[in-house]
Amino acid sequence: MKRKNSLEQIYGNDLEGNPVDAYEFGNSTYHVRKMIRSRTNKEGLTKVLIEVRIHNYGGSGRYEDNYHFISTNVWINPKHWNKKKEEITAAEPNAETNNKVIDGKYLAVKAFVNSKGRQKPDQVYAEGLDLSVLAKYFPSYAENRKCLTDFIDDYITFRKNQNTHPTTLKEFKTMMNRVKKYDKSKGKKTHFEDISITWSDDFEFYLRSKAKNGKAIGYNEGTIEKTYTILKTVLNHYYDRRAKYKINLTDDFRITGANGFKRGKKSINEANPLTKDQLDTLYLHQFDDPHLQLIKDRFIWQCYTGIRFIDAFTITKKNIKDGWLRLKPSKTIRHNIEVIQPLNDVALEILQKYDYDMTRLSITNQAYNRELKVMFQELQKKYPEDKYPNLKYKDDYGTYGSRDTFITMCVNGNANWKNILQYVGQSSYTIMSRYVKADNKQQEDEIHNIFKKPSIKED
Questions:
Q1: What is the pLDDT of residues 214-243, one digit of tens each?
Q2: Are 294 and 280 in contact (CB under 8 A)?
C-alpha cells in the first residue's frame, strides 16, 4: 500500500495538477508525455519530443527514474508551445497539421508501452519514430526475444553436454549458420511462431536459389534434405518442451507428404569399396615410410570392422569381450542402436598390435583423408594398371571407403542381412541396397544354381 501511495504521489498529477498517463508493469511504472527541448537551434526553433519516464521501485523505499526522449521530428518556436495542454498553439504556422503528427506519434508510443512492446506502431504514425531506446525494457518485444538460431545454439550446448561427437555437433552448427544467413537475406529473425509450411517454402527457395555454396549458388537435393532433417531434430526437441519454454510452435513441421514441411531428397552415394584383390594386396604390402604404415593400419582396421570414422579410433578394451566388439555408434546413439560383431583374425591382429587401444591411432578426418590419398597414390605407382589389371587402385576412397569395403565383402560373402546390419550398427535395409552390385556372371550363376533343372533320380 505504501508503494501504491508513492506512485500516486509521483504519477497522479503533473506539475500543473493534470492527470497523466502511466502504466505499471511489475516493479516499474512508465509515464508518457509530450514536451519540448529547453534549448533551441540557430534558427531559434526547438524540437517536440515524447518523454517516457521509467520509475523503478527497488524495494525498501528505493526508487530510480530513467528518462528516454523520442523525437517527433517536428520543430517549433518554443513560445508557441502550451505546456499544460501539451500542444502547439495557433500562433505557430501549420499548428493543426503538426499537432496531428505529434498526437499520432504520441499515441503510437503509448500503445507500444501499454502492450509491453508487443504492439508495433501503425506505419502511418511510426514513420521516423525510433522506439529502440525502449525495446530493452520489454522482453516480449520481437527483437529482444530469443529467435530460432538462439534456441538452436542452446540445443547444441545441450547435445555437447551429452557428449555428442564433435562431428555431429558440427552438422548442427552448419544448419544453424544456414538459417542465420537465410534470416540475414530476409532482414529479420525467424521465431518459432514463424515455422510453417509457407516458411518452409521460402527457406527451400533460399537454399536452392540464393544460398552461397562455395563459388556456386544453391545446394543440391541431398544437402537440402540433410539441412531439414537436422532442423527437424531441433524442432522436435523444443516442441516436446514447448510448455516449459513457453514456445509458440505448431506441429506444421511434422506434416509429411509431397506438400509437407521437409524438402529435398536423401542422397544415397554409390558405394566405393576395395575389391577383395585390392584389400588382400594392401594388407600384405609393406610401406617403406612408417607414417604410411600407420595410415594403412587405420584403414585396414576399418575395412575389417566397418566402423565409422567417428567411432573407429575410440575403441579400447572395454569394447571387447570374448572376441566380440560392442559399441553404441555416436551417429545413432539417440536411437539406441548397437554394434555387435564377432571380430575376425585381421581385426584382432590390429587390436593386439596397439594393445587394445585404438585411440593411439586417433587422427582428424581431414588429415586422414589427405593421407589416404597419398597412400593410394603410392599403391598406384607400385601396382600400375598395365601390369596389375586386377587391382586398378584409385586415390578417392576416403574414410568411408573402408566401411563400404566391409559391408560389400559381407554382402558378396552371402552373410545374413540381419547380421550385417548388426555388425555395422545400421537399422535400414534400404540404405544397404547400394552395396549390392552383382555383375552379369554372378547373376547368371545365382539363377542357374537356384533354378536347376530337375533330373530323374536312378534307383
A1: 889 999 999 999 999 999 999 999 999 999
A2: no
Q: Which residues contact 144 (CB under 8 A, 6 or more apart)?
A: 117, 135, 136, 138
pLDDT in tens, 192-205: 989 999 999 999 99
Q: 335 and 227 in one domain?
A: no
pTM of structure: 0.52
Closest CA to 159 of 233, 223, 225: 233
Q: Domain span at residue 437? A: 276-446
Residue 456 lies in a domain: no
DSSP calls for 222-255: HHHHHHHHHHHHHHHHHHTTHHHHT----GGGG-
Q: Does residue 423 lie in a domain region? A: yes
Q: How far apart are CA 286 and CA 292, in angstroms?
A: 9
Residues 100 and 244 reside in one and the same domain: no
DSSP state of 274: P
Cell numbers found for residue 90: 495557433
Query: Cell numbers of 442, please?
Result: 554372378
